Amino acid sequence: MVKVLDIPILNQINGIDDLKAIGTYIEVKIGIEEKIGVPLRVNGWSQLFNKIKSVSASINNNIEKLSILLCEENNLKEIGQFYEAKKVISDIFSLQIKARSWRELKLKLKKISSAFKDGVTTDKHLLFEKNKIRNFINSSKLEGIQINEGLTSRSMADVLNKYWSR
């Protein structure tokens, strides 16, 4: 009998040694699969770690999209038919998601997201601000203005005034 382990938030795992510290390979793999609700289809510590890192990277790259999908039930249905939505979510996570209903798909989405994040941001104002800053940085590049993300603590008006005065 394999004991179920208390698996930490998966994006905090920094190496194979962190996984080995949790327990045996079988215990860790089963614990992670139960935590995310999806079979991982990996063999060995390195494949398990690589899968965790690839799913974590996918979540970080699609954080806004996931947050919107998690906000409301209808957002998931706006993707299209059920099978299309399931495929889109499977592609986002790089996992084969199995679900038979919209409700089950939404639960899997929440389960996987919460396993990798302390809670995927669902604050619409915060998402808007992040998106606005990212768009400002990208549009500034088109004007030949290089702004790095560390300078976003300054207001956009301050940055624009600096370059207009040239």
Description:
- It is a single chain.
- The chain has three domains: 50 residues, no CATH class; 56 residues, no CATH class; 41 residues.
- Helix content is 63%, strand content 0%.
- It contains nine helices and no strands.
- Helix 6 packs parallel to helix 7.
* Average pLDDT over all residues: 79
Q: Count of helices?
A: 9
Could you state the order of secondary-structure elements as H and E? HHHHHHHHH
**Low-pLDDT stretches:** none
In the residues, how many domains can be counted?
A: 3
Question: Helix amount, in percent?
Answer: 55-70%
Largest sheet: none
Globally, the shape reads globular
> Care to count the β-strands?
0
Radius of gyration: 20 Å
> How many angstroms separate the termini?
72 Å
Question: Class by helix and strand content?
Answer: mainly alpha
Strand content: under 5%
Topology:
Elements: H1 16-22, H2 25-36, H3 45-61, H4 63-71, H5 73-77, H6 82-93, H7 102-116, H8 124-142, H9 156-164
State the main characteristics.
9 helices, globular, 0% strand, mainly alpha, 166 residues
Write a concise synopsis of the structure shown.
The chain is mainly α and 166 residues long.
